[in-house]
């Protein structure tokens, strides 16, 4: 198990756009594993590569249903609005209320390079949006209507 350091608010890398993964090789697969290990060690539900200092379009998510590895994820459809409470491993101790889509459809590659479609609603939709925002240099605090802590 290799744990990575999580970058925190104020680190310039969190505001950069991530690059498309052109080739899925052992380095990418190792990075996905390290990201998952790091996410689990911090009791997180999701983690994006910029949060560990890597500007690649990679996301790991586990909402209690098993690990999802997403390579080059993009939201292709969204519906409805839900008010959610969010926090972030890169912004420890801060929570806020914001609006997210109630449902999303995400297209990505899995770790075998096959195109997959993930449809999420509720908490999964929130997590998918939050992590994909990280890939575009957007933090949840940019969208907060009300801070809770």
Description of the structure:
With 149 residues, the protein is an alpha+beta fold. The chain has one domain (12-147): Peptide Deformylase (Alpha-Beta Complex), CATH 3.90.45. The N and C termini lie far apart (32 Å). It contains two helices and eight strands, in the order H-E-E-E-E-E-E-E-H-E. Helices cover 19% and strands 35% of the residues. The strands form two sheets. The protein has a five-stranded antiparallel sheet with strand order 1-2-3-6-7. The model has no long low-confidence stretch (mean pLDDT 97).
- Beta-strand fraction estimate: 25-35%
How are helices and strands ordered from N to C? Answer: HEEEEEEEHE
Classified in CATH, the superfamily is Peptide deformylase
Structural class: alpha+beta
- Return Rg in Å: 14 Å
**Uncertain spans:** none
The number of distinct helices, counting runs of at least 4 residues, comes to: 2
State the helical fraction: 10-25%
Per CATH, the architecture is Alpha-Beta Complex
Q: Largest beta sheet: what is the strand line-up? A: 1-2-3-6-7
**Name of the CATH first level:** Alpha Beta
- Describe the main β-sheet briefly: 5 strands, antiparallel
Q: Ends: how far apart?
A: 32 Å
Which whole number gives the mean pLDDT? 97
How many domain modules?
1
Instruction: Give the number of DSSP strands.
Output: 8
CATH topology: Peptide Deformylase
* Overall 3D shape: globular
Q: What oligomerization state is this entry in? A: single chain
